[in-house]
Amino acid sequence: MTASTSMRWLRRASVIPAAALASLALVACGSSSDDGDSDASKGFALNLDDCEDPDAVTKKITDDIVVGYSAALSGPVAGPVELALAGYNARLKRTNDEGGINGVQIKVEYKDDAFAPDKAKANATEFLQKDKVDLITTFGAGQIAAFVDDQNAACVPMLYPSSSDNRFTDMEAYPWTLQFLPSSQLETKFLVDYITSNVDDAKVGIAENATASGKAMSDAFKDSAKDAGIKPVAAIEDTDPNAAATTLKESGANVVYHAGVVGSCGVFDTARARANFTPELVVKASNCVNAPEYIAAGKAADGVVIAKYLKDPADPDLASDAGVKTYLADLKGAADPNNAVTVSGWMQADLLVNTLQQAADSDLGLTRESIMLAARDQDYASAMLLDGISWKSSAERSGGVSGFAPVAWSTAEQRFVSAGDVLSVD
């Protein structure tokens, strides 16, 4: 995929064929709008007087819904981003092939930022000022931070970027921004509870990635640990994984929390093995789900625990699951449909489709305002979320999944296996 690639899927007539109605019904069943009126968004309100162009915010979208996506199409995380976009594009393609959102197609325009925040800001400036996109999104907390103020001033919804930075959950400061990844506060509280339930006298060491995403997760974990009465014995960046593993070993840590990002997760486990460091428990951020990293790490990664919320399409117990079947049909021909990163990208697009449909069916019709209001009013049990988990947002809740299940990496099976039941964090 090249920079500034514009993907437009084949159009069909606005009359949706009967075969498509079933899948649209599946989307509708997950919507939070039981009474069919989502405009009030359960108390959430937008002040359009603060917008640079209020008329543009309320203008009906009748041509294409244009999404500007600044992504690392090159650089250190290009591989995982490619997986995520495979899922994202496949899910949107199905909706467009079925007639779009009440006849309106979803068009995604990509610009490469090479995972550099300054390039993401330049891309966003083009999207907002030149391309006049309807929505914008990106990959990474540093990228969000680079242009979130400009995006909110323009009142262009930033929907479901791959980030969980607590800074951007402030709905008063960032009313037009809603992240996709689980709240770092809720996720790290879940992991701290798991630690205290499974390890007596836990001495926790932290390895944090030097990116904004890694630091945000590390800070959230420290807060959750403090609330549980745990003081980490050491914290170090994972830039040099060998040095990080050695430092944590020498600290006496018997539990490690790795605030990693894709590409750094398995490398740190390999470094632990090299340092002969085998703590009782290793837990990681939920974005450390890229199976090839753990396969490459071999036995060193065995038993690593993460908080899971998405179904595993490779799980034999889910072979007959309706949601998994739908997902695999969407990803037919994809390079790695079983990768959790691919599933995550599909889920982002699935949530976006649900949001757009909810906005289009509201009294306001399909506008930037109605899209943001719908995004703040979700209780959506996506087909690829674990049973018992939904994606929720409201005037009181910025957004995220309602629960997690602990899973542990199995070197023997080369996949994550259950390490406990789904627990609500809502």
Automatic annotation (TrEMBL):
Extent of the signal sequence: 1-28
Protein name (database record): ABC transporter substrate-binding protein
Biological source species: Aeromicrobium senzhongii
InterPro entries, sorted: Leu-bd (IPR028081), Peripla_BP_I (IPR028082)
SUPFAM superfamilies: Periplasmic binding protein-like I
Keywords in alphabetical order: Signal
UniProt similarity note: Belongs to the leucine-binding protein family.
Residue ranges of domain Leucine-binding protein in the record: 65-384
